[in-house]
């Protein structure tokens, strides 16, 4: 139905042609319009069904890239490095507000000066309004998923404890690692939140950031590891060179407090920060854990092999709320 409503909207955007027609012709025209609309509805229904197949999204992306390549790229080179910036909730209205706040209506944001640009329609397979998990999944795996799911194909519903390994999606982080690239990420939210989690985790529910969340949903952590666990010990997360963001509470047990005095949320007794330090610091490697901006600024990166920075108990504070005294 959501696709059909979009098609109807596009059809009605055509200018109205006013003319005088005999009654019989008017009936015929009305019939033709009805057939056209029904045809659009039929196509939309087929697309809605295809959206539940992961191969649909891959095929569509490949077709679009090859179609556009002939029109836009005269010389194609292989990029040495790739940086993906994701602005959560970055709608046209938000961009307009940022532009005005930055310098007025005539101001230009840095990314608006890039040579190539475009727009993306964000939605989940089962929801017109997306959340960070399904949006992050689309951006980082190339496949749209259901609302609240992290890097799982569109047949997986939110909160489904029986996660079939065949329904897990591979992200750009996996492809980069397979290509011999070093991978890391930085975020102003929790490092286990939806947008970032799609890089390294596969979870039927973006809310399962620690083991207590999984157990509270009636699921077995052995079958569906929590997102923080996957970041530290998962097949992808364990290879990350740099992890920077917030969310210390997801990594320490309820019996311990972090540097701000906040108590951890894990009920399995694990301190994943210490486990990260122990696992990454083997074989002479330097694994450094930091919690403040001053520690970050004083690092000698030439001597660091792995870096984990958790700068807040939860999300990092918004710049508009920043009081200038916080060391984050």
TrEMBL record:
<dbReference type="InterPro" id="IPR018299">
    <property type="entry name" value="Alkaline_phosphatase_AS"/>
</dbReference>
<keyword id="KW-0479">Metal-binding</keyword>
<comment type="similarity">
    <text>Belongs to the alkaline phosphatase family.</text>
</comment>
<dbReference type="Pfam" id="PF00245">
    <property type="entry name" value="Alk_phosphatase"/>
</dbReference>
<dbReference type="GO" id="GO:0004035">
    <property type="term" value="F:alkaline phosphatase activity"/>
</dbReference>
<keyword id="KW-0378">Hydrolase</keyword>
<protein>
    <recommendedName>
        <fullName>Alkaline phosphatase</fullName>
        <ecNumber>3.1.3.1</ecNumber>
    </recommendedName>
</protein>
<feature type="active site" description="Phosphoserine intermediate">
    <location>
        <position position="132"/>
    </location>
</feature>
<keyword id="KW-0460">Magnesium</keyword>
<dbReference type="GO" id="GO:0046872">
    <property type="term" value="F:metal ion binding"/>
</dbReference>
<keyword id="KW-0862">Zinc</keyword>
<dbReference type="InterPro" id="IPR017850">
    <property type="entry name" value="Alkaline_phosphatase_core_sf"/>
</dbReference>
<dbReference type="InterPro" id="IPR001952">
    <property type="entry name" value="Alkaline_phosphatase"/>
</dbReference>
<feature type="binding site">
    <location>
        <position position="195"/>
    </location>
    <ligand>
        <name>Mg(2+)</name>
    </ligand>
</feature>
């Amino acid at each position: 139905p959501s696709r059909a409503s979009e098609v109807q909207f596009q059809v009605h955007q055509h200018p109205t042609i006013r003319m005088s027609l005999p009654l019989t012709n008017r009936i015929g025209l009305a019939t033709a319009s009805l057939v056209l609309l029904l045809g659009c509805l039929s196509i939309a229904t087929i697309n809605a069904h295809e959206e539940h197949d992961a191969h649909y999204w891959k095929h569509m992306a490949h077709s679009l890239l090859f179609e556009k390549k002939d029109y836009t790229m005269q010389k194609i080179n292989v990029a040495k490095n790739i940086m993906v910036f994701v602005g959560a909730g970055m709608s046209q209205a938000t961009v307009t507000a940022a532009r005005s706040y930055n310098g007025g209506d005539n101001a230009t944001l840095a990314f608006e000066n890039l040579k190539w640009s475009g727009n993306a329609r964000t939605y989940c397979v089962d929801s017109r309004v997306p959340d960070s998990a399904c949006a992050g999944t689309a951006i980082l795996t190339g496949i749209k998923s259901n609302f609240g799911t992290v890097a799982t194909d569109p047949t997986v519903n939110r909160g489904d404890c029986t996660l079939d390994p065949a329904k897990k999606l591979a992200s750009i982080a996996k492809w980069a690692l397979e290509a011999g690239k070093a991978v890391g990420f930085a975020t102003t939210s929790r490092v286990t939140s939806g947008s970032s989690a799609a890089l390294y985790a596969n979870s039927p529910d973006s809310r399962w950031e620690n083991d207590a969340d999984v157990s509270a949903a009636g699921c077995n952590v052995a079958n569906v590891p929590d997102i923080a666990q996957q970041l530290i010990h998962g097949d992808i997360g364990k290879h990350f060179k740099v992890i920077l963001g917030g969310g210390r509470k997801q990594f320490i047990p309820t019996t311990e407090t972090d540097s701000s005095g906040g108590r951890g949320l894990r009920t399995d007794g694990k301190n994943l920060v210490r486990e990260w330090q122990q696992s990454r610091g083997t074989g002479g490697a330097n694994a450094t854990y930091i919690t403040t901006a001053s520690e970050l600024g004083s690092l000698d990166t030439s001597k660091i092999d792995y870096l984990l920075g958790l700068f807040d108990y939860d999300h990092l504070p918004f710049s508009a709320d920043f009081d200038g005294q916080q060391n984050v």
